């Protein structure tokens, strides 16, 4: 017997029979005609636990109190009022890249089709019955060995880049996100800024979502920067492109041609002047459609719906307000929307508040730390003459109330190091110290667990600092505070081991950001640990370690031995 009800709007890209044939037994699926009136939709969706659609109004959703998820079968959310829906506390999920292969294959088809002038060849041969193999020889070009610029290296952009490796192209990309190095290596794509991509590329291919930031991102200025021999490809969303500017570029010789699967208005009016151009190939927003896509989308959608309805694995950002946390959709470092879902802190598990692309750790940054190390060595203290950063493993990060695992072969002193954690909020390169704090998103708490004998024995401190679970971070991020006056306390089973102030740092937060950004670009989400005063006590399985920072909170973790 079905446990939950799903309303499936049949006009959103899936194939109704595929959706019905692949529905799990726990779900009762009703097909809804998207052309129905709002009143009729409400009647059909009123008891739904989940809705599959890419276009629904808040008027309908207000009458559907049981809905826990809106699942789309497409990659974008631009056809619905996403912010208002999220404020209602209803999460929205896309297709997880189910259409990425189909879109990437059609992208290459358009690249080849416009480069080889296939439409003109087809027209003269098939329609005009003229066998003219001599007609277009000078107008044809190859994709092989060309520079291809991909705007947006997400799921679809990566599939495009992956397929281009077979054409020996030089593939470059622009993305506002920091793409992991292993992904860049796999698809053989190099990052460049947007203007450089436009100026360098023989083919520019668009694969970005439609947002306030991307709407109209290709206009007169951008087309004027492209080579006159370059081709423009767009298979993401029509409004990403100023269509009038594209027409001017195509007719004015600024670019050589275009392959389009999307237009500003869909269906496009019959008098759209782009239809009259010989150097344009247009398809009717069908790139993501295939029998394989429909099957993948159905399996992904139903799997997602079951996970949500079963209460599995829901992870969200939130804003702490007193003893409650309000759920937000999106990433607080970028665009996000506050929902009306509020939970008691007792109802949620707090994960580490950020998954940093990079975790930097300050070297000795407190005089007391330098003096303590010197005393243990029996030598005079030597204070560093400039900031000396190091790295820590981002994979060793755990949140508050989680365990710190001591490896079975560890037989030496394992000690905590309570630290102020600085979270970078925007891209920073060669930032003056006077402006450095403008690049800070907020502050949290870190605990740099250290195994002293390993730290001394390993030249890179790999074991000594980076074992799994040895980088507790949390419990949350506090914004709009002054980092100079934090009191930092480390407790071992309730006993104070360290008590010091961030005002005692040798170099403050602004100086560290200035120093780091002089040599390495800092990206949103990067975290910098600001050093410690240094604790002498050892911790053992069964111990509780707390790091408290005034104005932020308490990071609490429990020490266990490896099984």
Automatic annotation (TrEMBL):
Protein name in UniProt: Glyoxylate reductase
Gene Ontology MF annotations: glyoxylate reductase (NADPH) activity; hydroxypyruvate reductase [NAD(P)H] activity; NAD binding
Domain D-isomer specific 2-hydroxyacid dehydrogenase catalytic: 27-313
PROSITE patterns per UniProt: D_2_HYDROXYACID_DH_1, D_2_HYDROXYACID_DH_3
GO CC terms: cytosol
Superkingdom of origin: Eukaryota
Keyword Electron transport in annotation: no
Record organism: Geodia barretti
Record domain Fumarylacetoacetase-like C-terminal: where: 360-560
Keywords from the UniProt entry: NAD, Oxidoreductase
């Amino acid at each position: 017997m079905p446990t939950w009800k799903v309303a499936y709007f049949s006009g959103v890209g899936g194939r109704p029979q595929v959706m019905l044939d692949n529905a799990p037994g726990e779900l009762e699926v009703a097909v809804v005609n998207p052309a129905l009136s709002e009143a009729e939709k409400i009647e059909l969706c009123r008891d739904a636990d989940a809705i599959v659609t890419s276009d629904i109004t808040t008027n309908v959703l207000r009458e559907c109190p049981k809905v826990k998820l809106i699942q789309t079968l497409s990659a974008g959310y631009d056809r619905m009022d996403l912010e208002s829906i999220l404020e209602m506390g209803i999460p929205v999920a896309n297709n997880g890249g189910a259409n990425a292969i189909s879109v990437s294959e059609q992208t290459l088809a358009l690249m080849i089709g416009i480069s080889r002038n296939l439409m003109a060849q087809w027209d003269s041969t098939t329609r005009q019955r003229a066998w003219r193999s001599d007609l277009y020889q000078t107008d044809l070009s190859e994709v092989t060995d060309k520079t291809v610029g991909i705007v947006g290296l997400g799921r679809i952009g990566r599939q495009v880049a992956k397929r281009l490796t077979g054409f020996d192209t030089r593939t470059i990309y622009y993305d506002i996100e920091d793409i992991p190095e292993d992904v860049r290596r796999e698809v053989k794509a190099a990052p460049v800024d947007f203007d450089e991509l436009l100026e360098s590329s023989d083919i520019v291919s668009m694969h970005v979502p439609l947002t306030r930031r991307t709407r109209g991102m290709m206009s007169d200025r951008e087309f004027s920067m492209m080579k006159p021999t370059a081709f423009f490809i767009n298979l993401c969303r029509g409004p990403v492109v100023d269509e009038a500017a594209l027409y001017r570029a195509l007719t004015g010789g600024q670019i050589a041609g275009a392959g389009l699967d999307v237009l500003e208005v869909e269906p496009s009016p019959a008098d759209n002047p782009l239809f009259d151009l010989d150097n344009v190939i247009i398809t009717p927003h069908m790139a993501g459609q295939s029998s394989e896509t429909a099957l993948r989308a159905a399996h992904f959608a139903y799997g997602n719906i079951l996970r949500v309805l079963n209460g599995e694995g829901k992870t969200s950002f939130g804003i702490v307000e007193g003893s409650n946390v309000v759920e937000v959709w999106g990433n607080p470092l970028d665009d996000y929307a506050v929902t009306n879902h509020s939970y008691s802190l007792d109802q949620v598990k707090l994960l580490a508040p950020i998954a940093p692309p990079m975790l930097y750790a300050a070297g000795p940054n407190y005089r007391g730390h330098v003096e303590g190390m010197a005393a243990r060595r029996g030598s005079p203290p030597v204070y560093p003459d400039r900031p000396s950063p190091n790295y820590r493993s981002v994979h060793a990060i755990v949140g508050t109330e989680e365990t710190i695992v001591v490896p079975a072969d560890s037989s030496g002193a394992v000690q905590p190091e309570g630290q102020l954690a600085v979270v970078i909020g925007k891209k920073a390169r060669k930032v003056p110290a006077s402006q450095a704090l403008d690049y800070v998103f907020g502050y949290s708490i870190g605990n740099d667990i250290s195994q002293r004998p390993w730290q001394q024995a390993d030249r890179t401190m790999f074991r000594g600092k980076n074992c799994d679970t040895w980088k507790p971070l949390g419990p949350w991020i506090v914004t709009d505070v002054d980092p100079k006056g934090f009191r930092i306390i480390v407790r071992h089973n309730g006993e104070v081991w360290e008590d010091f102030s961030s005002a005692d740092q040798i170099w403050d937060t602004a100086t560290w950001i200035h120093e780091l950004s002089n040599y390495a670009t800092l990206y949103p989400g990067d975290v910098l640990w600001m050093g410690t005063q240094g604790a002498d006590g050892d911790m053992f399985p069964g111990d509780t370690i707390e790091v408290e920072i005034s104005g932020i909170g308490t990071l609490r973790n429990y020490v266990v031995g490896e099984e």
